[in-house]
Design brief:
Length: 66
């Protein structure tokens, strides 16, 4: 089973969105950051999606596992 989509406490650069996506999809945070930066060169709402994920994804310390 894959990891939950939460922003980790460790490995953050700005908000932890790329680190969360990397954990979820099984890749390195650096790879996800490079993909994000390259995607920003293309037209589209990438930066707005990043901001939305920052606002919507819970931080790891706020997630309770039972």
């Amino acid at each position: 089973m894959s990891a939950a989509l939460v922003r980790p406490r460790d490995g953050r650069m700005i908000a932890g969105v790329c680190a969360a996506l990397a954990n979820r999809f099984g890749t390195s945070p650096t790879t996800m950051r490079v993909i994000f930066v390259i995607s920003c060169l293309l037209p589209g709402p990438q930066f707005l999606v990043y901001l939305a994920l920052w606002a919507l994804l819970p931080s790891e310390e706020r997630v309770h596992t039972y």
